[in-house]
Amino acid sequence: MTYQAGRRFYKETATTLVGSAYEVALDGRSIRTPSGTTLSLPTEALAKAIAMEWAAQTDTIDPTTMPITQLACTALDRVIPNRAAVVADTMAYGQNDLLCYRAAEPPELVQKQADAWQPILDWLSTDVDVTLLVTTGIMHVVQDDDAMAVLTRTVAAFDDFQLTAVVRMTQVFGSLALAIAVTRMHIRWAEAVDLAILDEVYQAERWGEDREAMERRRNMRAEAEQASRLLDLCAV
User: Fold this and answer.
1) Strand pairing report for 135-136 and 101-102
2) d(CA 52, CA 88)
């Protein structure tokens, strides 16, 4: 059965072990991704989480209420067939990482960024052997080729589902450094979001909240939490 929106067409959900992978079945028929690939999963925990999302659907299937299913489909339909391109696209964030671009003023924000962001870069340098250069303002900083080579190998070493989570978190945070820190369990996803929105929160405290910005931050937290949950489910 191909994964798509519409009226619920099944009664029962179940997980099955097929070879070394797990699948989710609807009335005994395996789910397929939007591209037609069988939803083949690396752990039983991930399969059960997806089965629960399908079991929770009411009369109408709503994909927006199935974030883990969506991430798994992304892994199978987009990441695996285009792995080299996905790694390269993710590396673009590493070359222009949010944490490397600091404010020139006011002094309070300059200090906040240094206190919050520099420890992550220090950890990345010590534990991952990747030292990223920092600049002030919007002037582009060219990162060291050796550091980028190590960072590329680090990203490429993630398995397909881990890479899917790393890509999603990197996009949410605007920072590959933060995504790796979460993946390596140096910080939790919620702390990473707080670090990613530091500038925005600082401005809101000075000038007042914007409804659209608040909604965007809520969405960031939801996406980061689900990507982190994918990592946890794949590690079981």
Assistant:
1) parallel
2) 34
Q: By the 8 A CB rule, do 53 and 73 touch?
A: no
Q: Which residues of 36-66 are buried (b: 16+ CB within 10 A; e: fewer)?
A: ebebbbbbebbbbbbbebbeebeeebebeeb
CA separation, residue 154 to residues 59, 75, 130, 149, 176 (Å): 44, 18, 10, 9, 11
| pLDDT on residue 56 | 94
pLDDT 10s digits, 116-154: 999 999 999 999 999 999 999 878 999 999 999 999 999
Separation of alpha carbons 178 and 84, rounded Å: 21
Model confidence band, residue 3 (pLDDT cutoffs 50, 70, 90): low
The number of residues making up the chain comes to 236
pTM over 0.85? The answer is: yes
DSSP assignment letter at 34: T
- Positive or negative, the CA dihedral 154, 156, 161, 165 is positive
Cα–Cα distance measured from residue 146 to residue 53, given in angstroms and rounded to the nearest whole number: 43
Given a cut of 80, whether residue 236 has pLDDT beyond it is no
**pLDDT at residue 4 greater than cutoff 80:** no
Q: Are 40 and 78 in contact (CB under 8 A)?
A: no
The rounded percent of the chain whose pLDDT value lies above 90 is 88
